[in-house]
TrEMBL record, chain A:
Active site as annotated: D193 (nucleophile), Y328 (proton donor), H386 (proton acceptor)
Signal peptide coordinates: none
Keyword NAD: no
Record family assignment: Belongs to the peptidase S33 family.
SUPFAM superfamilies, per the entry: alpha/beta-Hydrolases (SSF53474)
Presence of the UniProt keyword Nucleus in the record: no
Domain Epoxide hydrolase N-terminal: 14-125
Source organism (scientific name): Ramalina farinacea
Gene3D superfamilies linked: alpha/beta hydrolase
Keywords: Aromatic hydrocarbons catabolism, Hydrolase
The protein's name: Epoxide hydrolase N-terminal domain-containing protein
Alphabetized Pfam families for the sequence: EHN
GO biological process entries: epoxide metabolic process
Listed GO MF terms: epoxide hydrolase activity
TrEMBL record, chain B:
Family statement: Belongs to the peptidase S33 family.
GO MF annotations, alphabetized: aminopeptidase activity; epoxide hydrolase activity
Domain spans labelled Epoxide hydrolase N-terminal: 3-119
One GO-annotated biological process of the protein: epoxide metabolic process
InterPro entries: AB_hydrolase_fold, Epox_hydrolase-like, Epoxide_hydro_N, Epoxide_hydrolase
Descriptive protein name: Glycosylphosphatidylinositol anchor biosynthesis
EC number(s) on file: 3.4.11.19
Gene this chain is encoded by: GPI2_2
Active site: D181, Y304, H362
UniProt keywords, alphabetically: Aminopeptidase, Aromatic hydrocarbons catabolism, Hydrolase, Protease
TM annotation in the entry: none
Length: 414, 385
């Protein structure tokens, strides 16, 4: 990882992803020595409800060991993304290096757009968005200066050395990136997973800069009864007042909290304890992430290739898994009025667009969102999941063009 | 129903494989050598120390020899209603002296992340006091096999161990049981299911929700309040491991089956947090880790899926039915959940409740062997006719 002394504040230095030969060699040796448990015998071959299937992890691990060409993937990443690292100084925190890719559009009317993803993702999720957003096929389509920033600790984004570094600090860091480093005084944001928290915070902290938002995931719960009795009341009477789609969403949310939230709990309380294993065992990290790709992607409409999966895993394997896990603890420990999930208790008046992808684990009744956000535009899709930019890039691009190209945002950015 | 002598004998191949993996261990990278404090003590520095000991000084063969020398072990096959028969590994150690006192068969049941070796320190005192000590590996732990299908509950464990004592070892005049962690549920189930045979139960843990019918003005002693706070702390902040183990045991197992360091950290977390300043040596931590790593930790985790926390609290046999058999509770201050006497007597025929204010935690038999063994001996002798 880079040494901060070599950087000057706000001066981006071009960067090319390069994983050490040592790590690649050690990884291969570890894969050769991989040691697998037996499948849980009472579960069907296709039943992933209690964890990743050993046969599938094994299959991918064998490909990782024998066929996967990381250098080729690295080369693709470096030729696709114009990457930099820049030193920023975050108030009440200190210096931090930020990794990002910057793709200015040649269009004179382009709007700067910051894309922020989450866990277990990384900046490479934006791969299929760059071209259509910066250089649209038609002049009637809006164009964007496209920026994707890595959360510190994700991919090649240098991990923070102080605890905790959560969405609030990331929000400050990315504002400095956009405004003070790249000179974009007004811009729009696209956020999913942690990115949705980060960009929401940016909008609330810097409304003069973040002029409109787009999300493909919203974390808000129902508003408390005293804040919005009507919305709360609807929830209480959901059996009668919710549409079948909303009822289904509630059921799924409850199932999520009942049986799928273990990873959040362990990562928010013991990220390092878990990280020892996930940073030491490539098959362990592969299994941990594969479960999420399996559960959160709409696999009936998009199947990631083996190369894609392993490249996504490499993004966290590079820094030994723990820095990504720490985000959950940082989220739980952040202090302040809009820290963590308290962010949704303050109304965000920034014009917001929201794309609903059915495979997203948590899909909410819209009135929960409108209770805390100035939701101006939404679209429902019949395909796509959590990793929208990867799974359904055309749909996401279309949504971004429609929302950000519309009159509301045009006026907001002007 | 044959009983075969057993010695722990991990293959050379397995040991070589382990040492190759240890040599490749990748410790977390600390940028700028940042050392992050961890509330559970499982820091990079600490794990690096233990890892270094593991790579350079630790000898599994030495520890294996000690286990075999101090714990006479056997295996047998036991049938279970609705499941295929299980191979059960167990310690069986009889009193050596020919005393006029009748001997009392005693079953000691471990939990997670423990193992059969937890009986090691109390065994000599118990044998000396005239107890035939039996300490099995739970199905899915150590060298016992694992059920072939889902739905194996504490009552099934109870059935296996009753058969071990009564049918396999021929203790027809009854036996006594001691349990902590999973063992405490299983012991309660044995008291409920086999009251003619399981004549007394001793527990160093007691999990239960607050009884709805407590006397309206219950005055807790300061010690009881310590215990109540500890249980709240445990339930509210320390149960992530249970959540992940009961919902995604296989995902976790894939990582910890492959990473010795991973299993070490997962183990050390509990050894540090659940005990009362017990001075764990690197050797102890590594041995406890290997007793999960070698057989594979997956089935130990899966037990949480078979009977998750809310089931233990509400629907499980021990939660639903009253245990009429005389039961003793030993309350150590750093145990995760041991309820006041006024609560326990709602679920069991509480013969005694002993508070140990001077210290001790979850692994009582390892941390406070003398105190525990003497209390057990006295209690059981008092109840045994």
């Amino acid at each position: 990882m880079a040494v901060m002394d070599e950087f000057q504040l706000h001066q981006p230095v071009p960067y090319n992803l390069h994983v050490d030969d040592d790590l690649l060699s050690t990884t291969k040796q570890k894969l050769r020595l991989a040691r697998y448990p037996k499948e849980l015998e009472d579960l069907d071959e296709e039943d992933w409800s209690h964890g990743s299937k050993v046969t599938e992890v094994k299959r991918l691990a064998e490909y990782w060991e024998n066929g996967f060409d990381w250098r080729a993937q690295e080369a693709i990443i470096n030729s696709t993304f114009k990457q930099y690292k820049v030193l920023v100084d975050i108030p009440s925190y200190g210096p931090q290096l930020i990794h990002f890719a910057h793709h200015p559009s040649s269009s004179p009317t382009a709007t700067p757009l910051l894309f922020v993803g989450g866990w277990p993702g990384s900046f490479i999720e934006a791969q299929k968005l760059i071209q259509p957003l910066t250089d649209p096929p038609s002049t009637s389509d809006p164009a964007f200066h496209f920026i994707v920033a890595s959360l510190p600790g994700f991919g090649p984004g240098d991990a923070p050395t102080k605890s905790p570094f959560g969405p609030l600090l990331a929000a400050h860091a990315f504002k400095i990136l956009m405004v003070d480093t790249l000179g974009y005084k007004k811009f729009v944001t696209q956020g999913g997973d942690f990115g949705s928290l980060v960009t929401r915070n940016m909008a609330m902290l810097y409304p003069q800069h973040v002029r409109a938002c787009h999300f493909n995931l919203m974390f808000c719960g129902p508003p408390p009864v005293y804040k919005n009795p009507l919305v709360f009341g609807r929830l209480v009477l959901s059996r009668f007042l919710y549409s079948s789609k909303e009822q289904q969403a509630l059921v799924e949310a409850q199932a999520f909290y009942k049986s799928k939230i273990g990873y959040v709990q362990i990562q928010s309380t013991r990220p390092q304890t878990l990280g020892f294993g996930l940073g030491d065992s490539p098959v362990g990290l592969l299994g941990w992430f594969l479960e999420k790709y399996h559960d959160w992607m709409d696999l009936t409409h998009y199947k990631p290739s083996d190369d894609e999966i392993l490249t996504f895993v490499m993004m966290h394997w590079m820094q030994g898994a723990t820095p990504g896990l720490r985000y959950y603890k940082a989220l739980a420990e952040e202090k302040g009025k809009i820290a963590g999930l308290k962010s949704f208790q303050t109304y965000c008046s920034t014009p917001t667009g929201y794309s609903q992808f059915p495979g997203e684990g948590i899909s909410l009744p819209l009135d929960w969102i409108t209770a805390c956000t100035n939701l101006c535009w939404t679209k429902e899709h019949d395909r796509g999941g959590h990793f929208a930019a990867v799974e359904q890039p055309e749909l996401l691009v279309q949504d971004l063009r429609e929302w950000f190209g519309g009159e509301t945002v045009r006026q907001a950015v002007a | 129903m044959s009983v075969k002598p057993f010695k722990v004998d991990i293959s050379d191949a397995e040991l070589i494989h382990l040492s190759k993996k240890l040599a490749l261990t990748r410790l977390p990278i600390s940028l700028n050598n940042a050392q992050w404090p961890e509330t559970n003590g499982v820091t990079v520095r600490k794990m690096a120390e233990i890892l270094s000991h593991w790579q350079n000084a630790y000898s599994w063969r030495d520890e294996e020899a000690k286990i075999n020398a101090s714990l006479p072990q056997y295996t047998t096959r036991i049938s279970v209603k609705d499941f295929a028969p299980l191979d059960i590994h167990f310690v069986h150690s009889n009193p050596s002296s020919s005393d006029s006192k009748p001997t009392i068969p005693l079953l000691f049941i471990h939990g997670w992340p423990g193992s059969f070796i937890e009986v090691m320190k109390i065994l000599p005192t118990l044998n000396d006091n005239g107890f035939n000590v039996v300490a099995p590996s739970l199905p899915g732990y150590g060298f016992s096999s694992y059920p072939d299908k889902a739905g194996f509950k504490h009552d099934h464990h109870a059935e296996v161990f009753h058969k071990l004592m009564h049918d396999v070892l021929g203790y027809k005049n009854g036996y006594v049981v001691q349990g902590g962690d999973w063992g405490h549920y299983i012991a309660r189930c044995m008291g409920i299911l086999y009251p003619e045979h399981c004549r007394a139960v001793h527990l160093n843990m007691f999990v239960m929700p607050e009884p709805p019918d407590l006397a309206s003005k219950v005055e807790y002693t300061p010690f009881e309040r310590v215990l109540l706070e500890r249980a709240d702390w445990f339930r509210n902040t320390q149960c992530a491991y249970g959540m992940i183990q009961s919902t995604k045991p296989l995902t976790l197992a894939i990582a910890l089956h492959d990473s010795p360091l991973g299993m070490l950290a997962w183990m050390a977390d509990k050894l540090f947090c659940w005990t009362d300043e017990y001075p764990w040596t690197p050797t102890e931590i590594i041995t406890w880790t290997l007793l999960h790593y070698f057989p594979g930790p997956a089935t130990g985790f899966d037990m949480y899926r078979q009977q998750p926390g809310n089931e233990c609290l509400e629907d499980g046999l021990a939660a639903r039915e009253y245990c009429k058999v005389p039961t003793a509770v030993s309350a150590f201050p750093k145990e995760l959940e041991v309820r006041p006497a006024s609560w326990c007597k709602k679920r069991v025929n509480l013969a005694q409740w002993v508070g140990h204010e001077d210290g001790g935690g979850h692994f009582a038999a390892w941390e406070r062997p003398k105190v525990l063994a003497e209390e057990m001996a006295q209690f059981y002798r008092g109840v045994w006719q």
